[in-house]
Write a structure and sequence with these properties.
Elements: H1 2-34, H2 50-54, H3 69-72, E1 74-82, E2 85-92, H4 95-108, H5 117-135
Antiparallel strand pairs: 1-2
Helix pairs in contact: 1-5
């Protein structure tokens, strides 16, 4: 059991990092592929679709992908921990992408990159599964 605890303590930060990267992929995939909020609703419709059609982009739901600048910079920003708690911060790597995001959030009146309950459950399950494998 001592070895299992040692493995968990030594590997937890790396495991949280991998799970956070999966969470980034789940969130961006949900918004870009389905146009859904964390609560399961849809974002507002595009007001003008001419430019999107001309660029060959889908117009059936808002996915915030016209230039892809915002999504390109959506990532794991860091991992930090103390007293046995590890936190992962996800967000945007550049000020430009953060400004684009803030503009879109202001227009939508909802957080775009908020994880859904299902996404958080998947992250929790992945961590618990990894911990279970360390104990066996």
């Amino acid at each position: 059991m001592k070895k299992a605890i040692e493995n968990i303590v030594n590997g937890a930060e790396e495991r949280v990092q991998l799970i956070a990267l999966d969470l980034v992929a789940l969130i961006s995939g949900r918004v870009k592929n389905k146009g859904t909020t964390a609560q399961g609703g849809f974002f507002s419709q595009y007001k003008s679709t001419r430019a999107r059609k001309k660029a060959g982009l889908q117009i059936s739901f808002k996915d915030f992908t016209f230039t892809n600048t915002m999504w390109r910079d959506f990532d794991l920003l860091g991992i930090n921990g103390s007293s046995g708690v590890i936190n992962a911060e996800i967000g945007f790597r550049t000020k430009r992408s953060s400004k684009i995001y803030d503009y879109n959030v202001e227009k939508e009146k909802i957080e775009i990159i908020e994880p859904s309950e299902k996404e958080l459950d998947l992250a929790s399950e992945a961590l618990l599964e990894w911990i279970g494998k360390q104990i066996i």
